[in-house]
Amino acid sequence: MLKPNVGHINYLNCLPLTYTFTKKPSDKFNLFKDVPANLNQAIMQNKLDISPVSSIIYARNFDKLMILPDISIMANGDVQSIFLVSKKPIDEITNDKILLTSQSATSHCLLKIIMNKRYYATPNYTIAKVSPQNPIPDKDATASLFIGDDALYLKYHQNKELYYYDMGNQWKELTNLCMVYAVWVVRQDFAQKYPLETMHIQQYIQNGFTDGFNNLTQAINEIAIDKPFSFSQLEEYLHVIQWKLQKEQIQALSLFYQYAFELNLIGKLPTLNIFHK
Does the model's pTM come out above 0.90? Predict the structure, then answer.
């Protein structure tokens, strides 16, 4: 019996789906929980059949992947979980050194686009190990980029001597569009061979977000009990993040890819190949 391998982002931005996976696990597929960077790598190594990936990963591999319809990780304005922490105002950054977390790919491109298109800056970007407790560990660096739970933590634990910038808000001010941070993809070879299974998993994930969100109070109290956030902080965050992929999100994704192409962050302008149920 076929049991596809399915990835899952083990971050708070997928808490409703995590709740569903916990309460109503499916025996139709194997579930692999990990950070975005590892899931990105796993699906490109054919270790996963379906997975959320950083949006930019689809653009770099669109000839091998298809986007599952109706689901994404997006926000319209503030995202609360992608922050640039800086020693000086963002509009004073020029060729400064900026430290990037190794955990994500889309956030790197988003920052580079914002710095180039909005502030006409070309900083020196370096992958480094950063932590909320020591946000800019390199004395030669001006700023650090944080994602996920670490970024959300920094939103509520700010140092008055540093500057904090929400990258979702920066994108909104640049484009007046929402931002799509991750999409769910299926390998083309798998989708062509197993279209019915692909459709069932897509529906399980979409319904999983809906069911989890409808039980958000319980999800926060049970799944996120050990997180360093108050109930109200998590509730606010999970009303900022949305999980849809419709016309507006497709438009925003297309512009993100256009800018990434212009800055040579991707080699080709991708076609948005949506898997049809």
Answer: yes
